[in-house]
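Quiz preparation item.
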């Protein structure tokens, strides 16, 4: 993926009066159109609060799509990034799927073009193709399995136990983590999340020394030097659960800082510190917040509900084949309810 493809991180500035006015307007619009908001943990707090207060849902991408499938809404507004809208449409073909910003993409998705990935798979026909949720519908259509960060280790272990060799895409850090955990024979696509790749191991060591009582929570899309220092490596959902379940009062968190809203909501008495993206080796392209997630806003949300614009479509053939890889995961996790973790980016 080229640096030119990465937008600047611009969070919408809005005053309290406009926020209140837009919130009330959107609530009326949702009711009039039998619509619900499904928002990712990394979006702005205004969107998460609105989703929760109007019967919608805030979660990781797969649970967002699963919720949509279980709801009676005619329209789902997906506050997140492109692959999340596609997954919602694939699992809910009868529903209208809108997004506040269709240009909201993902570095993992952009870094794994379907045509190039298909050629890579064709060169290794003896391997099972496993792709992360953060991929396009076309890449999912080429895969045998789709996984999330919370299910990846279990799924790969299941395949390893059956003697399978793996093609993994697109996140190299998550792939490396899974490979070390399972001992799998894996060919790993060399993609990365621009947010998680920026967390710095050496600077994290210094931060830990300054906060010796803090527990370190890390998303597995992070570099190995950061994962090695974690008290917990987990999905977005797992990280939020950890701040409730762990007895520590202070946490250093290595994932998109959009998650802090739900963490503070879950444990308001606890202290959360951003893992460092700054230091001698830093570029701080994202500074721990996805520039594409930041494209979602109250103004854009109101506009798409009002106009019906920014509808998500997935070609029928691609949707059918992609659904097969997604449903393999849904079937697998349904058989393991005690261990189910559907978290992703």
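Solution:
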């Amino acid at each position: 993926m080229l640096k030119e493809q990465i937008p600047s991180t611009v969070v919408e500035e809005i005053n309290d009066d406009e926020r209140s006015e837009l919130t009330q307007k959107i609530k009326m619009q949702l009711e009039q159109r039998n619509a619900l908001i499904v928002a990712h943990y990394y979006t702005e707090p205004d969107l998460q609060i609105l989703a929760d207060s109007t019967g919608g849902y805030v979660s990781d991408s797969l649970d967002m799509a699963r919720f949509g499938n279980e709801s009676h809404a005619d329209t789902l507004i997906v506050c997140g990034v492109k692959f999340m809208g596609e997954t919602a449409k694939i699992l809910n073909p009868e529903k209208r799927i809108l997004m506040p910003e269709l240009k909201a993409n993902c570095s993992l998705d952009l870094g794994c073009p379907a045509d190039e990935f298909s050629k890579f798979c064709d060169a290794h026909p003896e391997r099972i193709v496993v792709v992360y949720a953060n991929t396009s519908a076309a890449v999912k259509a080429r895969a045998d399995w789709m996984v999330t960060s919370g299910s990846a280790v279990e799924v790969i272990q299941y395949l390893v136990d059956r003697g399978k060799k793996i093609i993994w895409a697109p996140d190299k850090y998550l792939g490396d983590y899974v490979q070390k955990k399972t001992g799998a024979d894996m060919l790993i696509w060399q993609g990365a999340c621009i947010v998680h790749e920026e967390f710095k191991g050496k600077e994290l060591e210094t931060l830990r020394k300054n906060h010796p009582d803090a527990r370190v929570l890390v998303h597995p899309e992070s570099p190995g030097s950061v994962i090695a220092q974690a008290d917990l490596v987990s999905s977005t959902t797992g990280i939020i659960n950890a701040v409730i379940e762990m007895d520590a009062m202070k946490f250093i968190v290595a994932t998109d800082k959009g998650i802090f809203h739900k963490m503070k909501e879950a444990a308001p008495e606890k202290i959360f510190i951003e893992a460092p993206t700054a230091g001698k080796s830093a570029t701080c392209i994202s500074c721990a917040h996805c520039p594409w997630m930041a494209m979602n806003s109250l103004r854009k949300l109101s506009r798409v509900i009002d106009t019906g614009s920014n509808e998500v479509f997935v070609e029928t053939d691609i949707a059918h084949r992609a659904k097969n890889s997604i449903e393999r995961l849904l079937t697998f996790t349904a058989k393991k309810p005690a261990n189910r973790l559907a978290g992703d980016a």
